[in-house]
Amino acid sequence: MMKLFRFLKPYTKQVVLVMVLVLLQAIANLYLPDLNANIINNGVAKGDTGFIMREGALMLSVALALGVISIVSVYWGARTAMAFGRDLRHEVFHKVQSFSLAELNAFGAPSLITRTTNDVQQVQMLVVMGLNIMVMAPFMAIGGVIMAVRQDAPLSLLIAVVIPLVAIILAVMMRNAMPLFKSMQARIDRVNQVMREKLTGIRVIRAFVRSDYEERRFDVANRELSETMLGVGRLFAVMMPTIMAVFNLTLVATMWFGGLRIDSGAMPIGNLTAFLTYIAQILMSVMMASFMFVMVPRAAASAERINEVLDTVPQIADPAEPIVPTETRGIVEFRDVEFRYPGAQDPVLYGISFTAEPGKTTAIVGSTGSGKSTLINLIPRFYDVTGGQLLVDGVDVRDMTQDELWSRIGFIPQKAFLFSGTVASNLRYGRADATDEELWHALEVAQAKAFVSALDGGLEAPITQGGTNVSGGQRQRLAIARALVKRPAVYAFDDSFSALDFKTDAALRTALAHDTANATVIIVAQRVSTIMHADRIVVLDEGRIVGMGTHDELLGYCPTYGEIVRSQLTEEEVA
Questions:
Q1: Percent helix / strand / coil, the chain, rounded to 5
Q2: Is the Cβ–Cβ distance between 396 and 507 less than 8 Å?
Q3: What value, to the nearest 5°, has the Cα angle with vertex 369 and ends 105 and 390?
C-alpha cells in the first residue's frame, strides 16, 4: 500500500499543513483538562471567582480555537484525499489504456472497473481518515499518557495494563480481517461480472428463456458477497463491544482507585477529573485507531489489487527509439508471420506472407476458425506477431510508436461499437476537425446518408452507449463512415459488411472503390459476393495460406476456395 502514497507527493505541503493543524488540535485537547483541573483545585475549592473567570475565559478561547482548527484541518484533509483519489484513478485509467488485448483479457473488464472505482475509493477513504484520525490518535494517546502521569503517577499504572490488552485485541482482529477483505473485493468483481453479462446479453437471455437461470447465477454471486460481508460484520461486531467493555471497565477502575486516593488525601479532586478526561482521551484514541484498523485491511487489499494493474508491464509497448516511415503510402507486408495466443501450445497462424498495396483491394477468406480476424488484428498491433515480420510502409510495426501506426490505419471491427453522444461526435472520433460536408460525404459512401437524414437532428441526432438506438446494419455503416472520415492510408475491414443486405453491400462496395482508390483496402469477409471482385484474395485454412490470386484464378486451382464459393453461389453464378 505504501507504493500508492507516492501519489501524495505533489500534495506534500497540504499534508504537512494538515499534520500541523492536527498536532495543534491534540495540544489544545490535552491542555483543556489541565485548565479544568486548575479551575477546580485553585478556583472552585478556594471560592476565587476572579480566578474562575480568568481561567474560564482562557478555556473558552482554547475551545473556540480548537473548533476553528478542526474545521480547517478536516477541509484540507478532504481536499488532499480527493486530489489523491483523482490522480490515482487517472493513473489506473491511463495504465489500462496502454494494455494490449492480452492484459485486458487477463484482468477482465468487470475487475478493471472495480479496481478503478471501488478499490480506489477504499484507498481514498483511508487517506481521508488517516490525515485526521490516524495522525491524531498517536498524538492524543502519547500526550494523554504523559499528562495522566503528571496528574497522578501511581494511578497511571492502569494505563500499562489497558493499552497492551487493547493492542492484542486489535492485532487478532486485523489478522482475521485481511483475508476476508481480499475475498470481498474478488466477490464484488464477480457480482459486477454477472451483472455486466446480464445487461449485455439481455436479448439472448430473453430469447432462450434463461431469466430464471441468470437470476439464480446472480443470487449465488450475491449470496457469496453477502456471506463474506457478514463475516466481516461479525468480526467487528465482536471487536467493538470488546473495546467498549475495556473502555468502561477502565473508567470504573479509575473512579474506584482515584476515589481511594482522594479519600487518603494523596490526590486533589480536580486532578481526578483531569485524569478521567485523559483516560477517556487515551481510550478514544485507541477507539479511533481501532476504527482505522477496520479500514486498513480493506484498503490494503484494494491497494494490492490497484498495484497489480499499475505494475503490469504491457506486452505491447512503444520502442525506445521509434522509427517513422519516410512516406505514407499504406503498403502492408507480411513476411513469414507466425502468431500464437499467450499460453497456447500451437500457433494460430503459420508462415503468412503477402503484400497489400495502395490502390488495390486485398480480401481474406476462409472457414470459421481459420485465423482471418486474428490476422487482421495484427495490423493495428492489437497483438504482436510471435514470428516473422509485419511491416507498414517498410517499417516493422514493432519499431514505430503505436500512435504513428494507428494514424495510418482505419480499422472497422467485426462488432461495430458507437459511443454515447451524437452522430457527428462519433464520426469525428478519428478526425476532430472534419467539416459537416466531409461527414455527409462519408455517410453517403457508407450508404448511411438516407437514414441519418431521417433522424431527428440529422448529424446532431443522439446516439446511446454502444449505439443501441440504431440497428446492427446502421451501426456498421456508421462505423464505416467513421473510418472514411479519418482518411487513413490503410482500411482494414474485419467482416464489417455482415449485417448489410446484398443490395446495400453492393452499393457500398461500389462507392467505396471510388472513395478509397489511392488507399490500401484489406477486407475480411464471409460472403464471397463481397470479395469476389478484389484484386487479390488470400485463402486461409487452419492458419495457413492455401491459395492466393483473383477469383477466377483461385477457382481454377484452390479446392478450399472452390468449396467456399459453391457453398454460397449457384453453379450459374459461379460460371
A1: 65, 10, 20
A2: no
A3: 70
Amino acid at 69: I
Per-10-residue mean pLDDT, the chain, length 575: 79 87 84 74 64 78 87 89 92 89 82 87 87 80 82 79 80 78 80 82 81 88 89 81 82 83 77 80 77 75 88 86 86 92 85 91 88 90 90 91 90 87 90 90 90 89 85 88 91 84 85 88 86 89 89 87 80 58
Give the domain-ending residue among 310, 341, 356.
Answer: 310
Identify whether residues 279 and 411 lie together within a single domain.
Answer: no
Grid coordinates belonging to 467: 449505439
Domain membership of residue 268 (yes or no) is: yes
- Among 118, 137, 114, 156, CA closest to 22: 137
First to last CA, the chain: 70
Measured distance CA(61)–CA(32) in Å, rounded: 10
Grid coordinates in use for 161?
495494563
CATH number for the domain spanning 354: value is 3.40.50.300
Range of the domain at 168: 2-310
Closest alpha carbon to 370 in 353, 392, 397, 347:
347
CATH number at residue 166: 1.20.1560.10
What global pTM score does this model have?
Answer: 0.74
Length of the chain equals: 575
Domain tally, the chain: 2
Whether residue 431 sits in one domain with residue 294: no
